[in-house]
Write a structure and sequence with these properties.
Radius of gyration: 15 Å
Structural class: mainly alpha
Oligomer: single chain
Shape: elongated
Mean pLDDT: 87
Order of helices and strands: HH
Distance between the termini: 13 Å
Largest sheet: none
Number of strands: 0
Length: about 60
């Protein structure tokens, strides 16, 4: 059940790194900001992932 969330989170991190690499090549601030926001969303999803994992072990 939590595996799709983990896969989606890894995809978000990969996309974030791609955006930041493009930002460095093109000297674009907006791409760097977008990459940072995507990385923050990935970090928030990891927090939710671990919270859900702990909650599910208590429910079962």
């Amino acid at each position: 059940m939590l595996t799709p969330i983990l896969i989606f989170d890894v995809a978000l991190v990969a996309w974030s790194l791609h955006l930041m690499q493009e930002a460095l090549q093109q000297q674009e601030f907006s791409l760097m900001l977008a990459g940072t926001l995507v990385a923050a969303a990935a970090a928030a999803m990891m927090v939710v992932y671990f919270l859900m994992g702990n909650c599910l072990t208590h429910l079962i």
